Amino acid sequence: MTSRPRSLAILGVRVDDVTYGEALEFSRRFIRSGKPHLLVTVNTEFVVSAQKDARFRDVINTAALSVPDGGGLLLAGRIFGFPLREQVRGTDLADRLAELCALEGHRLFLLGAAEGVAAEAGRRLSTKYPGLQVAGTYGGSPDPGRDAEMVARVRQAGRVDVLLVAYGAPAQELWIARNLERLGTPVAMGVGGVFDYFSGRVPRAPKWMRDLGLEWLYRLVRQPWRWRRQLALPRFALTVLWSVLRRRQAIVSLRGDPLVCGGEGD
Ligand code: UDP
User: Fold this and answer.
1) Would you say the CB of residue 220 lies under 6 angstroms from ligand 1?
2) CA dihedral 73, 223, 191, 112 (to 10 degrees)
3) Model pTM above 0.90
4) Quick check: CB of 114 below 6 Å from ligand 1?
5) Which of 45, 154, 193, 239 has the fewest CB atoms within 10 Å, counting from its CB?
6) What whole-number distance in Å separates Cα of residue 112 and Cα of residue 138?
7) Tens digits of per-residue pLDDT, 31-62?
8) What is the CATH number of domain 7-196?
9) pLDDT digits over 69-119, tens only?
10) Omega into 170 within 30° of 0, i.e. cis?
């Protein structure tokens, strides 16, 4: 593995060209360093909202690791001649981080989702990965007015090596960015609706649909109220096209860019 991943700036949003194995290896290093690191799982919805939300864009661009979660980003990379090697889905990366914690004795905290969901997700992960130490679980809220209380909750749990935060993007990334230094957690990652899957409350698309890139269709059929959010993909395509028409570079390779080293090897 290279010491610094190659990155792309897709419409100004940094995405690192990492595989699952490399993302886990970086996580191991972050835990070893004992210093706080933010991991973000970028998809087209992130890129679209980061166009209007400079704070969100900065949080992504200065994260320790920004994994390519969305299939639309891989497609755009291929079309523009900057292929990303692997789609690193947030749901699967969260699952593999739980497995890593169980195998290597790290402590996991699950923060977010509706009342009781994180606790149930923690119980099921402990059954799936025997020996997993769930340091704690809590629903809570991403409301900045409750930050002090939430930070106290996590700190009460003692040592936490990996913190997964489920408040949906961008609230969860902004929550982590505001509170990470105070928490000092080596690996903190926003995970969206992942606890809903882990707890069994919401079924995940079957593997064949995920492999065909149709997870969005499954979610649309099961949760039709999400249709507005799913406009992110056509919006992303139109923004890329608009950049091209205006002779701007929609995608830039950031090999060697100083941003790429954020958090690595600290
Ligand atoms: N959520 C929460 N508090 C909030 C807003 C959202 O706990 O104020 C949780 C919600 O219950 C869900 C997750 O955040 O578990 C967001 O899920 P969503 O499906 O929107 O995320 P995606 O996977 O699409 O990023």
Assistant:
1) no
2) 160
3) yes
4) yes
5) 239
6) 6
7) 999 999 999 999 999 999 999 999 999 999 99
8) 3.40.50
9) 999 999 999 998 999 999 999 999 999 999 999 999 999 999 999 999 999
10) yes
